[in-house]
Design a protein that fits this description.
alpha/beta, 39% helix
């Protein structure tokens, strides 16, 4: 995690990653308004689709910053690290590949993805 992403936040507010609710549109709007937007990786049903969401978020935030000159808040992904999640490693690789600023782990030990 790059801590510089978080130095510009006026308030340390994170929009919680809500199952079946949080997606790219909500994350993007949160970030544009100074709130760290997050979503569960499993809200998209495939790793390929999850990667497309990450790209959509990154592209939209870059466009916002280019158009306005304002820095958007960072975004994050919630990885379910429970043993039943067969996608955790593939989704983690997507997060690393695209340099997702914040990774939240739940339903298990985050040390399993370290």
């Amino acid at each position: 995690m790059n801590k510089d992403y978080f130095k510009s936040l006026e308030l340390p507010v994170i929009a919680a990653p809500m199952f079946l609710i949080s997606g790219p549109e909500l994350v993007i709007e949160c970030c544009k308004n100074g709130i760290v937007g997050t979503f569960p990786a499993l809200n998209h049903r495939t790793t390929e689709g999850f990667e497309q969401w990450v790209i959509q978020i990154k592209d939209s935030l870059a466009a916002f910053e280019a158009e306005t000159g304002e820095k958007a808040a960072p975004f994050g992904v919630n990885l379910i690290v429970h043993a039943t999640n067969m996608r955790v490693q593939a989704d983690l690789e997507i997060c690393v590949k695209h340099q997702v600023p914040l990774i939240i782990t739940s339903l298990g030990s985050g040390s399993s993805v370290g």
